[in-house]
């Protein structure tokens, strides 16, 4: 018995099967898109923010995805936008999860307490529910137009607006963990409440929110592009999928399909590829 | 008795929740970088003009005074005057809100109906190839946003096939709009008995409503399928079947037990659909709330925007109230509240 | 033997529920335990015995009355960092739940070392050695300590829980239903271990359980709890053979119909 115990892997999560080779291809599309985001901007055939040809050239040899109604190269812009859109979505996801962890733990640890702290936690919890009731795109539209559409404001505003999803998840988990006997055991072992919260409660309650990051990522890509689509995003001619899509829409209605189709496809691909990769990564983690 | 008291408290909470948003928008506007008065006045202004405009915008005096003035105005349904048009924001919304609401409500109703039916097929005929497709699609719920689908739909059904009408409004240009009664375009046309207008409005709604249903109903389908499968496996169902209930009664019972999470999600979905409508209105040339908000953003009209946020928030809160109450009716066990530890 | 440590519950009452609908889980209970006494708290579920046990170690604060450790109020002592450590070094607790009594993200050894690090401020290497020593003394293979809690059985986990409580060499050990969740075959072994450990180390024991014979085997004294109050107390043998309170009689009879009272002794090696 004692000989076999040494081989038990040193992780809290179930053992990862390193020999499992099925399903690895599911990660490939996202890796390719991420690669495009990283190196793409260095390999562009044209400057994505300048007029490089006559307007509305159909896709062909010189312009793979054609040019839009202003004469900008669609291919260069779609590739250049990948970095911005993925970067914003990624940062929003990370920040929203961080906010979620902090606020969720704060609420979860204090909401059933008596006195002002408990009252504040319950109030905050209600506030989060209320903020979540308003469509994210509406909140984003108003808040970002108030504070100015720069990349940092967009990231911070969207992270705050989307954080209720993560806050609720983590709060629920904290409530579960709070009932676990190992917290009492740690208290008896002399661990203080602050340390208890960060060393025992937090690590055991963030996994659900971590698994949910794929959803938050998809939502933040979609909302970022939606903001660009209605014209609240980064100012033109910054290459951004949503803005390209809305500028291409009148062209598309007139039958020049390319300037809207390619950014739309890029957007759908990015969301789909990330969901696929995330499901595979989580499947491996879970077993 | 207890249940009725709960209704009352839940309804009484609504103004309190609204007040939260009022305070929130109030703070947001005051947290805006820069002095909006200066922005509006430009380079040359007199102190009198500054003071007058400041008072006009409700930005004069101490913060508590401002808040009280703001709330007093809101209670009288005064959202201020739009900076871009000078018109009363409330009047503007009264004209535009019904159209947006109609779009979202149509999409909501059809999503609810479609998800109910599709879930029935998926759960009760799992071997059907349609079921497999729907399951795969439901798993990818929300992956493609409605505005992307809308652009694709316009390319295919308008530009290529010519089936959909031109996206330049709710009505063909040569048709006179029906007299305004309720403000809801389709409803007004039906009330006026104007078949031609109603038909035209419906044909203009098909594509936007269609893409919204396609983009969002997957959420409901997913919940229905999971809920129905659980409810069917429940001993309660077996008891019903064993006691000789009719198939319809059994199905109804299964649906009723699977409903609460779906109803809750319907409330969330309404928010998504309003958001979707706001984003898509410009694309289809609908002159609704979304278009107004976008115009307000482009002209820096923060008065109109704060009104817009409040109105959408109020709408969402009312929908969540309805959702809570419907859930209470379907499942009386649902009671809110945090347990307070005695210590 | 003279007691060097006394833990006293003085008219403790504990309410649960909201202010409007509260009920007393424990009401006005007096109890004194020392480092030389081994007291069993028995009663059916809901009788308040677990709550009383948790109040004795300060995991719950009494709504009325107070718990005193050597004459000082426990809840006051626990408020101060230094005194809190002293209280924990003196009184230890083992929880009922074997499945969740260890943090799933830490090895069992980490958890057993934890009290040494926090209560004694020992360096990691020393703490590790002491923890392994205690683990071995309880008949567990040291290599098993490197495992995560979900990879050992319930009985093994409960031994590690005992190890975690014993590493600090407490004067009083409060055990809450430590064998109830285990197989009958494992229960005896754990009870033996616990009794021997307390005798060897000179620690007092508060043994909370609904199993009358098992409690009688481990403890010298029994206190029978019913609806939040101690309805009878006395020497184990007396209570088991000649119960005075009606409720205790029912409890003893209930066990007799299942197995003879003397069955508790069957677990002796």
Automatic annotation (TrEMBL), chain A:
Domain of life where this protein originates: Bacteria
InterPro entries referenced in this protein's UniProt entry, alphabetically: BP-dependent_transpt_permease, MetI-like, MetI-like_sf
Membrane-spanning segments: 24-44, 86-109, 136-162, 215-237, 257-278
Predominant subcellular localization, coarse grouping: membrane
Domain ABC transmembrane type-1 positions: 82-278
Keyword RNA-binding among record annotations: no
Membrane topology: Multi-pass membrane protein
Signal sequence segment: none
Source species of the chain: Cellulomonas avistercoris
Entry keyword Membrane: yes
Alphabetized SUPFAM superfamilies for the sequence: MetI-like
Keywords: Cell membrane, Membrane, Transmembrane, Transmembrane helix, Transport
Name used for this protein in its record: ABC transporter permease
Subcellular localization: Cell membrane
Record family assignment: Belongs to the binding-protein-dependent transport system permease family.
From TrEMBL, chain C:
Transmembrane region(s): none
Family matches, as SMART domains: AAA (SM00382)
Keywords: ATP-binding, Nucleotide-binding, Transport
Pfam families: ABC_tran
Domain of life: Bacteria
Domain ABC transporter, residue spans: 7-252
Gene Ontology MF: a single term: ATP binding
UniProt family annotation: Belongs to the ABC transporter superfamily.
Name by which UniProt lists this protein: ATP-binding cassette domain-containing protein
């Amino acid at each position: 018995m004692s000989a076999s115990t040494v081989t038990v892997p040193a992780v809290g999560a179930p053992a990862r099967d390193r020999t499992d080779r099925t399903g690895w291809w599911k990660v490939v599309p996202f890796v390719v898109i991420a690669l495009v985001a990283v190196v793409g901007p260095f390999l562009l055939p044209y400057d994505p923010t300048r007029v490089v040809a006559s307007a509305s050239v159909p896709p062909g040899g010189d312009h793979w995805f054609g040019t839009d109604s202003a004469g900008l190269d669609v291919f260069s812009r779609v590739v250049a936008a990948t970095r911005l859109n993925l970067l914003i979505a990624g940062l929003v996801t990370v920040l929203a999860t961080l906010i979620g962890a902090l606020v969720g733990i704060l609420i979860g640890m204090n909401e059933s307490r008596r006195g002002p702290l408990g009252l504040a936690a319950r109030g905050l919890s209600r506030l989060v529910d209320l903020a979540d009731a308003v469509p994210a795109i509406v909140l984003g539209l108003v808040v970002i137009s108030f504070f100015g559409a720069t990349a940092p404001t967009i990231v911070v505003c969207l992270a705050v607006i989307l954080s209720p999803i993560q806050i609720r998840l983590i709060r629920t988990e904290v409530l579960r963990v709070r009932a676990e006997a190992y917290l009492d055991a740690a208290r008896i072992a002399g661990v203080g409440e602050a340390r208890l919260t960060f060393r025992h409660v937090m690590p055991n309650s963030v996994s659900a929110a971590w698994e949910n990051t794929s959803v938050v990522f998809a939502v933040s890509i979609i909302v970022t592009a939606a903001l660009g689509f209605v014209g609240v995003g980064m100012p033109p001619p910054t290459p951004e999928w949503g803005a390209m899509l809305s500028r291409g829409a009148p062209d598309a209605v007139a039958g020049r399909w390319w300037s809207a189709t390619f950014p739309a496809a890029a957007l759908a691909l990015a969301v789909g590829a990330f969901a696929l990769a995330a499901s595979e990564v989580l499947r491996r983690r879970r077993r | 008795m207890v249940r009725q008291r709960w209704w009352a408290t839940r309804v009484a909470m609504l103004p309190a929740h609204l007040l939260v948003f009022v305070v929130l928008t109030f703070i947001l506007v005051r947290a805006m970088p820069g002095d909006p008065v200066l922005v509006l006045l430009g380079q040359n202004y007199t102190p009198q003009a500054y003071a007058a405009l400041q008072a006009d915008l409700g930005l004069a005096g101490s913060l508590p005074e401002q808040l009280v003035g703001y709330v007093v105005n809101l209670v009288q349904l005064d959202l201020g005057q739009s900076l871009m048009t000078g018109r009363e924001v409330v009047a503007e919304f009264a004209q535009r809100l019904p159209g947006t609401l109609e779009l979202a409500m149509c999409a909501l109703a059809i999503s609810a109906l479609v998800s109910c039916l599709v879930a029935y097929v998926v759960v009760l005929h799992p071997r059907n190839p349609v079921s497999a497709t729907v399951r795969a699609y439901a798993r990818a719920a929300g992956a493609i946003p409605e505005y992307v689908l809308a652009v694709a739909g316009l390319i295919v059904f308008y530009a290529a096939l010519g089936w959909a009408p031109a996206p330049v409004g709710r009505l063909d240009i040569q048709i006179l709009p029906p007299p305004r009664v309720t403000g809801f375009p389709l409803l007004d046309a039906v009330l006026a008995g104007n078949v031609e207008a109603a038909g035209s409005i419906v044909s203009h709604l098909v594509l936007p409503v269609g893409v919204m249903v396609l983009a969002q109903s997957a959420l409901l389908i997913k919940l229905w399928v999971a809920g129905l499968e659980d409810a069917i496996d429940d001993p309660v169902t077996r008891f019903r079947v064993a006691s000789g209930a009719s198939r319809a009664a059994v199905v109804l019972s299964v649906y009723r037990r699977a409903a609460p999470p779906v109803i809750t999600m319907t409330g969330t979905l309404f928010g998504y659909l309003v958001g979707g409508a706001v984003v898509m209105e410009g694309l289809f040339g609908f002159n609704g709330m979304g278009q107004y908000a976008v115009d307000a953003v482009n002209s820096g009209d923060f008065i109109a925007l704060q009104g817009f946020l409040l109105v959408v928030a109020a709408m969402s809160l009312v929908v969540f109230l309805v959702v809570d109450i419907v859930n209470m009716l379907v499942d009386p066990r649902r009671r809110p509240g945090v347990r307070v530890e005695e210590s | 033997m003279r007691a060097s440590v006394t833990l006293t519950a003085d008219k403790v009452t504990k309410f649960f529920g909201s202010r409007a609908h509260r009920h007393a889980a424990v009401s006005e209970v007096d109890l004194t335990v020392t480092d030389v006494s081994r007291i069993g708290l028995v009663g059916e579920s809901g009788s308040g015995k677990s709550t009383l046990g948790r109040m004795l170690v300060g995991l719950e604060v009494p709504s009325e009355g107070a718990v005193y450790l050597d004459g000082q109020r426990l809840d006051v002592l626990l408020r101060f960092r230094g005194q809190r450590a002293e209280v924990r070094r003196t009184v230890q607790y083992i929880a009922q739940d074997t499945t969740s009594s260890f943090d799933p993200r830490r090895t069992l050894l980490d958890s057993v070392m934890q009290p040494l690090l926090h209560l004694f401020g020992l360096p990691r290497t020393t703490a590790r050695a002491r923890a392994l020593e205690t683990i071995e003394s309880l008949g567990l293979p040291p290599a098993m300590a490197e495992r995560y809690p979900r990879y050992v059985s319930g009985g093994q986990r409960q031994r590690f829980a005992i190890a975690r409580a014993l590493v600090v060499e407490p004067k009083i050990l409060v055990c809450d239903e430590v064998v109830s969740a285990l197989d009958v075959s494992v229960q005896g072994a754990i009870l033996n271990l616990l009794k021997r450990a307390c005798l060897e180390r000179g620690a007092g024991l508060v043994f909370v359980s609904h199993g009358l014979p098992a409690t009688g085997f481990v403890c010298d004294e029994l206190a029978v709890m019913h609806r939040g109050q101690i309805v009878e107390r006395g020497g184990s043998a007396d209570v088991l053979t000649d119960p005075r309170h009606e409720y205790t009689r029912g409890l003893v009879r209930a066990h007799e119909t299942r197995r003879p009272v003397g069955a508790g002794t069957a677990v002796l090696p």
